[in-house]
Amino acid sequence: GESVGLHLPTLSVQEGDNSIINCAYSNSASDYFIWYKQESGKGPQFIIDIRSNMDKRQGQRVTVLLNKTVKHLSLQIAATQPGDSAVYFCADTNTGNQFYFGTGTSLTVIP
Amino acid sequence: DGGITQSPKYLFRKEGQNVTLSCEQNLNHDAMYWYRQDPGQGLRLIYYSQIVNDFQKGDIAEGYSVSREKKESFPLTVTSAQKNPTAFYLCASSVGRNTEAFFGQGTRLTVV
């Protein structure tokens, strides 16, 4: 089956620093990728997405980078704030209509 | 307000009982999904539906059943055949393939 994993289960950063969360995927047919943020006890919230015909996409304070050669994507959060503390998931889809989620990275922002 | 609503937020079930979790969306989305989340883990797909009156098993469908009689509703029944049902259940919907999925706020099911 599909396998989407994250390199680190936890990440701590100082407030104001940049955060980088990494994700590896296994299916070379994956053509759409999403990053979600999940706060404790709540449903995941969409952050940003990227299609396989792109290698970079920017949003407000967030950037997603996609490297199809090594099947890796990353989420960069600029000027990390305490409100960014949450669990971050990457997800991908391929020819089906299913999203496959990684296990998540817990980001803690230190004031 | 458009969105996806799950109810109830908390649900307690006795062993051996079936229980149904509600998921309703007013986003006019064709696709709907049910995921299960265990502590410290990612989301695992239980069932998904791409269109009314059609649904497909996900990776962990055993012990669960669904129906999709209306576009806006995708209820999940946790049957007594599910051996470890205590978990956080998340429902989502999307316009279709390769579009973002919107999630509800989840139902936390506890077997007592």
Report on this structure.
- The complex is a heterodimer of chains A (111) and B (112).
- Chain A has 111 residues and is an all-beta fold.
- Chain A is 0% helix and 54% strand.
- In chain A, the strands form two sheets. In chain A, strands 2, 4, 5, 9, 10 and 11 form a six-stranded mixed β-sheet that branches. Chain A has a five-stranded antiparallel β-sheet with strand order 1-3-8-7-6, with no helix packed on it.
- The termini of chain A are far apart.
- Chain B is an all-beta fold.
- The mean pLDDT of chain B is 93.
- Chain B contains no helices and eleven strands.
- In chain B, β9 and β10 form a beta hairpin.
- Helix content of chain B is 0%, strand content 50%.
- The interface between A and B is medium-sized, with 25 and 27 residues.
In short:
Chain A is mostly beta strands and 111 residues long. Chain A contains no helices and eleven strands.
Strand content of chain B: over 45%
From the structure provided, what is the oligomeric state, counting identical versus distinct chains? Answer: heterodimer
Mean pLDDT over the residues of chain A = 89
Instruction: Note the overall shape of chain A.
Output: globular
Largest sheet of chain B: 7 strands, mixed
Succession of helices and strands of chain B: EEEEEEEEEEE
